Amino acid sequence: MSDCGIRLEGVACARGGRMLFEGLDLALEPGGGLLVTGPNGAGKSSLIRIVAGLLNASAGHVSVTGEKALLAVAAGLDPELPVGEALRFWAGLDGRRDAVADALEAVGLLHLTPVPVRMLSTGQRKRVGIARVVASGAPIWLLDEPANGLDHGAIGVLGGLIAAHRAAGGIAVVATHLPIRMQGAREILIGGGG
Ligand SMILES: Nc1ncnc2c1ncn2[C@@H]1O[C@H](COP(=O)(O)OP(=O)(O)OP(=O)(O)O)[C@@H](O)[C@H]1O
């Protein structure tokens, strides 16, 4: 996996006139993991969006090296397309259309390849979103609430995919209010008095 890294120095985030967090320092290298927890509205998604380059920090310095794949709350999948086609659209942007079948297999949904996205259950939709990240081949995974809607088994599969990604030299940043196993990951609690 290509070289990747994330470095935050003194990062602050204010939204709607309220300081969500400040003075955040962080360095992640290949194989690194970060688990971001905290109550609703604390700023977990905001931190993910700052690392993704979609939101400016209010203060501090952000440096990210390597391609990023973002799993946001909205999966960004065309509801009218069959699952396979919806994923091939995104993977095609990275020249990785051939990676889609393996990614669907990895989340246990290869059999849903021909089914339109709009017919998926909540958990299935989330798993297809995870497959999109897997298929991207990006070294940096930014996962915002990836376990929402997943059953116990699927959360275990997600944990395994994250572990394999890190073992292959990738980086995973995961914002979650549900427990996800990430061995050796740094954990930060935003808000909640932490
Ligand atoms: N575009 C915006 N303009 C102003 N405030 C915003 C905007 N987007 C989010 N906020 C506010 O920023 C705060 C942090 O939101 P964020 O989505 O980062 O929290 P979160 O920790 O991910 O929450 P949750 O667990 O509910 O997903 C919230 O108070 C939210 O209302």
From TrEMBL:
One of its GO terms (biological process) is cytochrome complex assembly. Keywords: ATP-binding, Cytochrome c-type biogenesis, Membrane, Nucleotide-binding, Translocase, Transport. The keyword Transport applies. It comes from the Bacteria. Gene3D superfamilies: P-loop containing nucleotide triphosphate hydrolases. Residues 6-194 form the ABC transporter domain. Pfam families: ABC_tran (PF00005). One of its GO terms (molecular function) is transmembrane transporter activity. InterPro entries: AAA+_ATPase, ABC_transporter-like_ATP-bd, ABC_transptr_haem_export_CcmA, P-loop_NTPase. PROSITE patterns: ABC_TRANSPORTER_2 (PS50893). This is Heme ABC exporter ATP-binding protein CcmA. It comes from Sphingomonas suaedae.
